[in-house]
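Audit log entry. Action: structure prediction of a protein-small molecule complex. Ligand: 2-acetamido-2-deoxy-beta-D-glucopyranose. The ligand was supplied as SMILES and no pocket hint was given, so placement is left entirely to the predictor. Protonation state taken as written. Sequence taken verbatim from the request; no trimming, no tag removal. Recorded inputs:
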Amino acid sequence: MNWGIIAALGLLFTFNTVNGQLDPEIVDEIIPEITSQGGEAKLNCTVVNKQSGHTVHWTFMDSYAGGDIISNDKDIFITNPECKEGKKKYEVIVNKFNQRETYMLKINCLEFVDYGYYKCYIQIRGDSSASWPSKIGYLVVQVPPTITSKNVAVKQLDEGQSGFLQCEATGVPKPNITWVRSDGGMLPGGMGALWNSTILPLNNITKDNRGLYKCVADNQVRPPDVYLVALQVFFKPETKAVQDTVGQAQNRQFDAKLECRIATTTLRFQESWYTLRIKNVEANDYTKYFCIAQNRIGRNATTMITLFETMECQGANCPTYEGLGASAISVSLLATISVVTLAKLLL
Ligand SMILES: *[C@@H]1O[C@H](CO)[C@@H](O)[C@H](O)[C@H]1NC(C)=O
Ligand SMILES: *[C@@H]1O[C@H](CO)[C@@H](O)[C@H](O)[C@H]1NC(C)=O
Ligand SMILES: *[C@@H]1O[C@H](CO)[C@@H](O)[C@H](O)[C@H]1NC(C)=O
Ligand SMILES: *[C@@H]1O[C@H](CO)[C@@H](O)[C@H](O)[C@H]1NC(C)=O
Ligand SMILES: *[C@@H]1O[C@H](CO)[C@@H](O)[C@H](O)[C@H]1NC(C)=O
């Protein structure tokens, strides 16, 4: 045994224990706290060998000021408003067990701004701050997702055009974004049924891409946020004859009604019926008719309706002959014509 070493250890020991006391220490690591917005967080700072002349402080390292001192032992040092009924923003609860003292910092009514690093240190009067024991704890305030780009409720595009839909979201942790079609259909451009990105590309769209699109922002913190946007697609009208052929007898004051359905889809399939009424059909009316529809995008004129000659009156407005004299027939015809005129005015 080298007595010199023992003497040196003795000296060290003496040096370490001023007045026979051990130096104060923070003994345990500060367990990081992960909790939700609106809730409360608890950070423990456990110290040993704390004597008079020592004070335990909590600071918030991520404050705007860059290190606000929150507490001095169990007293709150910074402004401490009541954040909900009977609850102040900060509390320090001290528990003693033998030589161990736990300074539990309780933060109530958690907000996103409370997120960050908290430092606990023991201030030793007379020593320079560089030698004060300290430990750092971490607080994560989870925030449910908020979609911040809900500014468009309806997106309008012409067939063949390109564009995109946008779904930006905030939240802690950063939310996952999922685009789907509300009706469960496929997304444009062969992208399948799901798209996990803030930007949903709409390339060279077709009328089948019209519909309701849904963006879900989810980060496992309830509730997820949802954004619905309707995609309107303008396209060339589509025409279709109600009946390809219409018959009517000539020169007897009978009318012919040619009907055509025109689809001018935007969001939902909107179909309108258009009627061409040919009054008092004559020989030179027997021909082919076209239903031409045109809008800003283009025109469609494929539909053809043929008006052909029949021997008898055709259609709903034909006169009936049963047991009626000649004068009665002419009255009936006049009545028919007046009804037709009215119908035309209403169309
Ligand atoms: C913090 O300390 C208190 C009191 O000593 C104890 O009840 C609690 O379990 C501790 N929490 C953590 C996360 O260590
Ligand atoms: C897209 O998001 C959904 C829902 O969050 C998830 O189930 C799926 O695995 C994700 N797909 C990809 C390719 O990341
Ligand atoms: C857009 O789509 C149409 C129909 O699917 C196709 O004929 C055309 O080539 C496409 N245009 C581009 C630029 O991809
Ligand atoms: C995002 O999605 C991925 C894959 O589905 C998943 O592993 C991850 O936990 C999700 N993130 C959040 C914050 O929900
Ligand atoms: C006109 O509309 C019909 C559907 O009614 C469609 O099949 C046809 O392709 C369209 N024609 C043109 C030139 O767009």
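Audit: result stored. The longest strand covers residues 134-147. Residues 236, 238-240, 300, 302 surround 2-acetamido-2-deoxy-beta-D-glucopyranose (ligand 5) (CB under 6 Å).
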